[in-house]
Specification:
- The chain has 136 residues and is of the alpha/beta class.
- The chain has a single domain, classed as Response regulator (Rossmann fold).
- Helices cover 46% and strands 17% of the residues.
- It has 5 helices and 5 strands, in the order βαβαβαβαβα.
- A 5-stranded parallel β-sheet has the order 2-1-3-4-5.
- α2 packs parallel to α3.
- The longest helix has 23 residues.
- The relative contact order is 0.17.
Length: 136
């Protein structure tokens, strides 16, 4: 388990309130700082004010979907490119069409809380390792 990665700040973007609350509770319980957003537009506003270690986002949302959030975020914050974890109730066609665009970090709903924590731990451990290698 990537205990060292815990305590990192996560932007959780999910338009379904019960899921947003559940994911936030699961991640908070294991030590992550979670900042929830109702949709991609709210997430973009939060990114203007705060830096995050990871963005966990639903694919299908009102205003700004997961793909557009990703594109907007990496344009303005290039270091966030490998720091996205996408979620959806199905594997959307957009992911297949933009395979070179999107990192292959994707959870299909429903998933178990332990799977969410493992994915988040893994991504944050990867980015920490990459950051350390870049500084060396």
């Amino acid at each position: 388990m990537a205990e060292k990665a815990r305590g990192k700040k996560i932007l959780l973007v999910e338009d379904d309130e019960p899921l947003r609350e559940m994911f936030s509770a699961v991640l908070s319980k294991v030590g992550y700082s979670v900042d929830p957003a109702k949709h991609g537009l709210e997430a973009i506003q939060k990114l203007k004010l705060t830096s995050y270690d990871l963005i966990l986002t639903d694919m299908n949302m009102p205003y700004v979907d997961g793909i557009d959030l990703y594109l907007n975020s990496i344009e303005k914050h290039p270091h966030m490119k490998g720091r996205f974890l996408f979620m959806s109730g199905h594997f959307p066609l957009e992911v297949l069409e933009n395979r070179s665009l999107i990192v292959k970090k994707f959870l299909v709903k429903p998933f178990k809380p332990k799977d969410l924590v493992q994915f988040v731990d893994s991504i944050l451990a990867e980015t920490a390792k990459g950051g350390a290698e870049m500084r060396a």
